[in-house]
Amino acid sequence: TWDTVPLAPPDSIFKLTAAYKADPHPQKINLGVGAYRDDDSKPWVLPVVRKASHILLNDPALDHEYLPITGLPEFVSGAARLILGASSPALAEGRVVSVQTISGTGANHLGALFLSRYYHFNGEKVVYLSDPTWVNHFAIFRNVGIEPKTYPYYDPKTIGLDYAGFVKALEDAPERSVFLLHACAHNPTGVDPTEEQWAKVADVVLAKKHYAFFDTAYQGFASGDLDHDAKAVRYFVQRGVPMLVCQSFAKNAGLYGERVGALHLISPTKEAADRVRSQLSVLQRSEISNPPSYGARVVALILNTPELFEEWKADVHTMAGRIIEMRKELHRLLTEELHTPGNWDHIVKQIGMFSFTGITPEQSKALTERDHIYLTVNGRISMAGLNRSNIRYFAEALDRVVRG
Ligand code: PMP
């Protein structure tokens, strides 16, 4: 048995983390992993999460019963309000189906599985992913028999958005195509469309009757403001685009390992929503039976308690603020102190946890081999890996590899 099972290569991000851990160099830096770190390079348990956990664990009524198949009701309703807006007409009209999932990955999977079963694809089952995208998107769709294709998104020449290419791909795709869109803080590039660009994208999506598959893993991380980062999603709902939203609380609540997420599917009518809900329950039942309860209870408490919600907003602001500060400082070091050749404005223009530096794979490898700085070969750096103690070391190393 298993003679024919080929050996799979290790996941590149986890391989990078292992190499970082094994490196004894005192100034080593890990810029690979997409998890927030504080100014001491330590994982940060959000103070509001500590508080909510404390309340929960001291509640004598807390038990370990199964949650409903579609999740903790007060979690999913709070999560839907957070992304769609408390006053969303779609919510008031009962057109939104919300199901608790195994974080954002599980939301993507359940959304993809549902589409593969019930979406009226125009010919072959295809999803259009931005080039580049979170690499896991490819495997998630292939697993359910949907073939990923890519649409132009990032332009290496401008280190910005290939807006014309993006719009042309929307126009050229067959009607009723499925397009995966990053709601904010695009992973891996940090490049987001502007409001005007989103409006044009919505025009074309509507004209071509496309389906918008939104992935939102960084609400709050982009601007520090939860509502601001939900703007594109809310705008598409308001325009009546057929769509779903995959939502993760891994980053914005620092609950990576607790796997807290939700899938929200917006239907044209309440009747359609009821049918969709019934089938999502059937799929969820065979996949995980019931979602995990602890993280969902923590988030539900935060979302539904006004004082805790205010505290959470401040914690999100702290994380986003530190990242924005690191962007400014890196930009300042490269442009004002080191006079590094080239234009580095993209460092401050890009949004969220990641930045595409624009350096070549060879330069990325040189940073790892010579300077013990671990990053993916595409030149993506996690801004959360930088802090006041290591940013100068990084800027100087980057300056050296750029000068060659
Ligand atoms: N989508 C995107 C774009 C992501 O970057 C991530 C996290 N890297 C996820 C979804 C899912 O993460 P999780 O399953 O941890 O919520």
CATH hierarchy, class of the largest domain: Alpha Beta
Instruction: Briefly note the structural class of the backbone.
Output: alpha/beta
Low-confidence stretches: none
CATH superfamily of the largest domain: Type I PLP-dependent aspartate aminotransferase-like (Major domain)
- Percent helix, as a range, is 40-55%
Bound molecules: 4'-deoxy-4'-aminopyridoxal-5'-phosphate
Topology, number of strands: 13
Provide mean pLDDT, rounded: 96
As for the number of domains, it is 2
Radius of gyration over all CA atoms, rounded:
21 Å
Instruction: Output the helix-strand order.
Output: HEHHHEHEHEEEHEHEHEEHHHHEHEEH
Keywords: Aminotransferase, Transferase
Organism: Artomyces pyxidatus
Protein name: Aspartate aminotransferase
What does this structure look like?
- This is Aspartate aminotransferase.
- Keywords: Aminotransferase, Transferase.
- With 404 residues, the protein is of the alpha/beta class.
- The chain folds into two domains: 12-44 and 319-403, Aspartate Aminotransferase, domain 1, CATH 3.90.1150; 73-304, Aspartate Aminotransferase, domain 2 (3-Layer(aba) Sandwich), CATH 3.40.640.10.
- The protein is 45% helix and 14% strand.
- The chain has 15 helices and 13 strands.
- The chain has helices spanning 12-22, 47-57, 73-84, 89-92, 103-118, 136-143, 163-172, 195-207, 231-238, 270-287, 294-304, 306-337, 345-349, 361-371, 391-403, and strands at residues 29-30, 96-102, 126-131, 147-152, 154-155, 160-161, 178-182, 211-216, 243-248, 260-266, 354-356, 373-374, 380-382.
- It has a seven-stranded mixed beta sheet with strand order 2-10-9-8-7-3-4. The chain has a two-stranded parallel sheet with strand order 1-12.
- The radius of gyration is 21 Å and the shape is globular.
- The mean pLDDT is 96.
- Residues 34, 103-105, 134, 182, 187, 215, 217, 248, 250, 256, 261 line the site of 4'-deoxy-4'-aminopyridoxal-5'-phosphate.
- 4'-deoxy-4'-aminopyridoxal-5'-phosphate (PMP) binds next to α5.
